[in-house]
Amino acid sequence: MRNDKTDAREAAKPGLDPVNFAERMAGSGNFMVLFREGMAILEETADYLDGPGRTESRMLSRLGGLAYATESMKLTTRLMQVASWLLVRKAVHEGEMTVEEANSEKYRLATKEIARQPRFDGAEALPARLQELIERSERLYARVERLDARLRVASLAHTHLPPPRTDSACI
Question: Are 99 and 155 in contact (CB under 8 A)?
C-alpha cells in the first residue's frame, strides 16, 4: 500500500535531495525582513527604555510605575527571546549551526508563559510609546512562534522520511 511519504520519496530522482524548508527559510528575503524588523524593534526598545521611557516612568503613579517595571521586563524578555531565535536561524543559513542543533531544546523559543501573559493592572496608563512597543513585540513574537512551529514540523517530517530507494526492487 502506498502513502504520501512513499509517493514523495519515489517521485524524487536519484541524486537529488528533498528541499529542507528549515534550511532554506533563513536565507529567504522574507526571513531577512523579519530579522531586520526584530533587530530594529529591539534597538528601538533599548533606546526608549534607556532614554525617554526612563523619564516618563518617573511621572507615573505608584501603580503605574509598577506596571511600567513589569511590562518593560516582559517586553525585553520577549524581544530577547525573538532576537536569540532569529540569530540561531541565521546561523543555520550561514552554516555555523545545523538544523538539528537549532531545533534542540537549548534553542527553543521559550518564555511563552511570559509572552502571552495578560497586561498588568494599570497598563492602560502606561506611556503611549511603551504601549506601542509592547503591541509590536507581541505581534512579532506571535509571527516567530508560528514560524518556529512550522519549521519544527517541517524538520521532523524531513528527518523521518525514509531515504529514497535506488535499488532495482523499486522498479
Answer: yes
Q: Which helix (H) or strand (E) holds 19?
A: none
**pTM for the whole thing?**
0.74
Whether the pLDDT of residue 141 is over 80: the answer is yes
Pick the closest to residue 80 from 111, 106, 105 (CA basis). 111
Kindly report the length of the chain. Answer: 171
Q: How far apart are CA 25 and CA 156, in angstroms?
A: 15
The pLDDT tens digits for 41-79 are: 999 999 999 999 999 999 999 999 999 999 999 999 999
Helix and strand numbers (H, E) in the chain are 8, 0
**13 pLDDT higher than 70:** no
User: What is the distance between the alpha carbons of residues 151 and 140, in angstroms, rounded to a whole number?
Assistant: 16
> Could you tell me if 41 and 140 are in contact, meaning their C-beta atoms sit under 8 angstroms apart?
yes
Distance CA 138, CA 78 (A): 8
Spatial distance between the Cα atoms of 169 and 142, rounded to a whole number of angstroms: 47
